[in-house]
């Protein structure tokens, strides 16, 4: 299998990880002002020819690649090339960053103050920083942080400034420009702005990709962007977007640079600033528009405690070594470097696309691997499995059990040494008192409610907010348990203990959930092996010849794992049920989410549904995408809108298979 | 001379003969050298050694004047004298007898080498280490009856068992000799070759043509799997200029003649071919044809394929040649192009008609300093675009520039060294060139004095647009000298644990910079990964320009102390470098050829259908693989 080379299958526990250093400690002990005005002399890329932001722009505008597209656009549209050129210049003006040290120093000062107020500590692996520094000298570097919060990119630049590393230029969404003044400040601290969608705009694409590639080729600055494309509202990693990754890898494919180093950065927050905002957004309350006044209003968050934060710089991944044997770079030998007929339309070859996709997944997996898991994450996971609350002592016991299991599965746990479990748990609970409260000997979720009486819908909504907020913590540990959990679920769904039956069930579930979780395409067999390995290791199952059998002692682990994925399973079944029962012939894209939501609300109010996560628009979208991928639902584009055509019989069969009522197809057997 | 009657033609030839004879007489008593011989090989038995056929600069017994385990003449070599200064022995070259004071520092600094750490070669060939010849008695018997000279002397065989690839020379220095030809034959003319090939076919003997022995593609290596008797067919005695046609400006020459002899003999008649590959001291005309050679001055004279008008080749199927000497023909695919680059797999080139030119009136070297390599490449590209390239224009990168400087002879006066210092000051301080980035283009102009000067101005004006500063004739000339002594320098390196070689490619203009950077970097990186203790020398020059691209030449060398199998490491790195070249849009070879060294990439290079075409030609011409050197395919 081609992707095998990319995913080394090792025992996750053996992974060696670096130690952390708290960078706020020094801030608390010395002058922020002096820090902001410190001597900043980063080590630069050795192939760098220094140039100013303005020179960079003119280089882009004069690049042959762009001139070629300009001529083409002008020929197609009939506009004179000068007009198109001006247009390109305007696009670039709107896009380009204006990185300047002044602004960075300003941010260094203000962010020091803010971070000290928000966080107890900001921990960084210094060995990662050293590796990064090395890499930055050698080759162009692309920084790929996870994206959970607006804080992410501020924090990245702040850390790089602190360690005297080259400041990155950051791809940001155009929405920030809506914020007066702040947008420009971000621009001056290295952000460049791209439109969220520019599908058919050839000129825009050309300016944009040329801009990024020029910076990369010249080694102008490290390039930073978020593979996930947007902040993950659920704290689960999102399916990676490939556009920018393609752009930054292309100079290597074409031999314009010797290598490109990709550096995954895992940013884990003990408490995400946006936690309840996200939950509301998932339930259909629109996201507040980015605005300066909104930002100012949000300053009350400064008075809250957001715990600690961990930033882990993974070792740089060399695109060259990944591409070894996978990409035939001489495929470009027969076309001109720039120009030729329609080089923008020239899509990357299938081989290249598959490769970029694999790399993207690999990077996201690396991000996940080095995400720090806080004790609260384990507590939240357990709480969600007993929504009605549980005895505190039982929680302590189970948390300690889960800690050991998570460790065995390779989780990067931040668990204080030499502290009794009960202390750790109660201090987590107190940090998250907005989510969980202890009354007497029981602990339960906090549900905010209005002062007065509330309608059943309001009550449901409020309860859903707290469940989804809690779920966003549980989601942070899903990647650790995901594969064994899919296997556990396959074990209970498959009415057989034969390995091949279980595999086909596993493969089906994996396929269904591949929009929901990060499951690298084509790595099904490896994932299965990994899951088996882990479950055997913790004594939950035994492998006998051609059979996978549940072990006597495995009941606890397996039922925990099954319960972990239960909300998703139920959610997908509800979506199926909606499509089967209520979807009309002319279901439009816009109608889908509200309709599923009200269907689910109805089920809830009637008492036949207990699961809250089905209310999440994220889950609903993922389920729909899965059904489209499985060819059960068809997307039809008409003049004005997008319609969904549902094959009800097929939906029914997916729903039943999910419920374990009918066995999965055996067509995949050959792969075992 | 308007009318070209028979009489006047005869008269002209006669006059020329007189000139030639006069030339011989002038050098009477001096060592014998080949001359123009307007005479065919005598027919019948006992054809060999025509009376008027003088031996060439390299004798039949190469061992008399050549090194057995290194490059070139035995009397010429670099060494470090007792004071640690570099010196070049002998009297043959401009550098001969000179002291090179900066060589040691450059050598030690670049390679981390040390003059205390020597890796000497075995002093002489241990003939007992060479497997005895396996002769095909029937073939030998019949060959004897033809009177064509042959030998199975061990030294003769060993000399023809290798080219100048690093692994070949390294083994020899170690006293290791692989499979050798079992005997050597020296045909004196085309007819001798016809006989030899006939006999080889009759007795199933493997023939490997040998010209100047300068191959760097393992082309001369005897295939170890070959079970037949291997006969090396040494063309060196076919070295006469058969006629010169001044009307058409062509010369008909036997293909065994080596470059320096061809050029000298033509010069005596006031002509030249202008074909000057770096190996021209030793490489032969037939070898040029068989490998698609390229000469330094190809901008004026063209590469070998532009120079040949007619080729005669003996194949197992018979003799192949065209019926006329029309300058261009539309008669199906050009059969010359099956022969050019066939690397001895199809037959032996015996006679070639070449274009000749009057010797240019004026020659001038020059050089230009650029602030960096990018600017230099941009300038060369512009020169190529305007089609005003001088006879030769080469751009050396910074490392090679410094390399060239290490070969600067001791300056004779304080004044010169003061002047040198001043120049350096002007370029680095006043003009702000970074001494670690600047690079030099070397130029060679040829033609009428007036035109040369005009041309020179044009080129310098273009260079100025790219920040280039004229840097004098000396730098230029030294640059060209480097290419002639580089192989001698490798022998010096091998005395001190340094091994290296050169390789080349051709590449479209828009990829030149990327290719140079990536290949150099790849070499450095691979060396590190393979455990080489010191950073290697990894340097390149753009050595030829074309309308649509350039030829790039790399030098690569490293200090192998601490490595158990340096040659293997070397080969792995070279292999990786070639992969990198191909990935960056470079060709498999510009002029070194494929041999056995680069065979593995042939299919990728010319497609499997292309390879099939070549194979079917081979199958037709040589179904029994008499020409069994196994090159190319």
Automatic annotation (TrEMBL), chain B:
Keywords per UniProt: Acetylation, FAD, Flavoprotein, Lipid biosynthesis, Lipid metabolism, Membrane, Peroxisome, Phosphoprotein, Transferase, Transit peptide
Sequence positions that bind substrate: 490
Main location: membrane
Entry-linked InterPro entries: Alkyl-DHAP_Synthase (IPR025650), FAD-bd_oxidored_4_C (IPR004113), FAD-bd_PCMH (IPR016166), FAD-bd_PCMH-like_sf (IPR036318), FAD-bd_PCMH_sub1 (IPR016167), FAD-bd_PCMH_sub2 (IPR016169), FAD-linked_Oxase-like_C (IPR016164), Oxid_FAD_bind_N (IPR006094)
Domain of life of the organism encoding this protein: Eukaryota
Binding site for FAD: 209-215, 291-294, 343-349
EC numbers for this chain: 2.5.1.26
Pathway assigned in UniProt: Glycerolipid metabolism; ether lipid biosynthesis; Lipid metabolism
Region (Disordered): 32-59
GO biological process: lipid biosynthetic process
Cofactor(s) needed: FAD
Entries under PROSITE patterns matching the protein: FAD_PCMH
Name of this chain's protein: Alkylglycerone-phosphate synthase
